[in-house]
Amino acid sequence: MTENYFDGVLKNIEKIKAVMNLNDQEVELLKTPQRIHQANIQAGGKSYPAYRVQYNDARGPTKGGIRFFNDVDEDETKALAFWMSLKCAVVGIPYGGAKGGVRVNPKELSEAELEELSRNYVKAFSEHLGPWKDIPAPDVYTNAQTMAWMLDEFEKIKKQKAPGMITGKPLELGGSLVRDIATAQGGVFVLQELIKKLDIQDPKIVIQGFGNAGLNAAQILGDLGYKIIAVSDSQGAVYQENGFDISALIKHKQENKTVVGLGKQITNEDLFALECDVLIPAALGSVITPKIAETIKAKIILELANGPIVPEADDLLHQKAIIVIPDILANAGGVTVSYFEWIQNITGHYWEKPEIMSKLKKAMTKAFDELYHKYQELGKDMRTAAYVLAIERILKAERLRGRV
Ligand code: NAD
């Protein structure tokens, strides 16, 4: 992340101010996180800075992941919490936005120290967390085990069970089915809607990144009969003109820890420049620069990764009439199934996979239809339309509460 990460958010808000004709009070509210909690927490005898930012709670309890990573700071956490507020609003789930993190290199910590860090995070912020306050989830270098330790610590402090205080838990502790593939599946549901609207037949797809998001997207798209002609991971990129056999590709990745070795090896630059209908960045942020954007021939970009396109490249892609399905909708399947997990926890009634899949499809399709309508109404790019839609919803809730 760049040092002035939150500056990007402030610039975005200024851009939207002009589009939506926002007044100064509304702009100030959007630019200001409601609560910033900070603590120094211990693990293995060392101290690490920890954060929890609750950006906006007008639409419900706040929701957002906790990451353990070297570059975590207040600025980055604020920006991520702002985007969570927009993501929950755009997909229409009754949450505000939050984010948390600890500045630590998790690879230097033993399992016992990671447990200590997770428990101490909850000890530091327990009074601000809870199923009706703020609900964390996994993020970079945190996982279902981290959530289990955090839940256990929270329940010890509160002296009662509270499975709905955190999502992304193991199934045995109240986690939800489908959560593991939810991000990819949600992205595929919205992609299918746009493919229908544009009447693209037999789409050819390119995927950058072959981890949780990219691999599952390839699997789901392959099962739908779509042609995946190129994929990549941190080791390199591979191309198969007639489309990969996805099961063979996944087997190869599992056995060799890389996709490289099947199909023809190409460079990362070649991958972005391929003749295709859909490009899915599913790896890192800021990978599509103006130089890369110049070469892209896809009709649609589905942002499964968070922030894969730099702002200058965004404008260029819009000029080239390439439709970008923005991250705040494209990867919102994850938080949507987290919401389903929370409903199951607070009602104590657990759902089977078909029920969750059908609810996810309904939620993503509805969110897409509403966004597409706004996109056509505004005549701007889909990211701007998503920001406008989300901010309208947040400000409406703020007005109803009498806060603006
Ligand atoms: P992951 O760690 O499981 O996978 C990342 C993949 O990217 C790996 O296959 C890695 O090899 C690949 N990669 C790394 N550097 C690369 C490079 N230079 N070129 C090509 N590939 C490269 O992570 P993930 O959970 O799949 O997340 C990927 C993106 O999706 C991130 O931006 C994340 O924020 C976003 N996202 C994920 C979820 C989720 O539920 N997993 C939810 C929302 C957003």
Instruction: Tell me the β content.
Output: 15-25%
CATH topology of the largest domain: Rossmann fold
Cofactors and ligands present? Answer: nicotinamide-adenine-dinucleotide
Oligomer: single chain
Assigned CATH class of the largest domain: Alpha Beta
Q: Helix and strand string, N-terminal first?
A: HHEEEHEHEHHEHEEHEHEHEHEHHHH
Number of strands: 12
Tell the overall outline: globular
Q: What distance lies between the first and last C-alpha atoms, to the nearest angstrom?
A: 32 Å
Number of domains as seen in the coordinates:
2
The CATH fourth-level homologous superfamily of the largest domain:
NAD(P)-binding Rossmann-like Domain
Strand order of the largest sheet: 9-8-7-6-10-11-12
Category by helix and strand content: alpha/beta
CATH architecture assignment of the largest domain: 3-Layer(aba) Sandwich
CA-based gyration radius: 21 Å
How much is the average pLDDT?
Answer: 96
Largest sheet: 7 strands, mixed
Approximate helicity band: 40-55%
User: In DSSP terms, counting alpha (H) and pi (I) runs of 4 or more, how many helices?
Assistant: 15
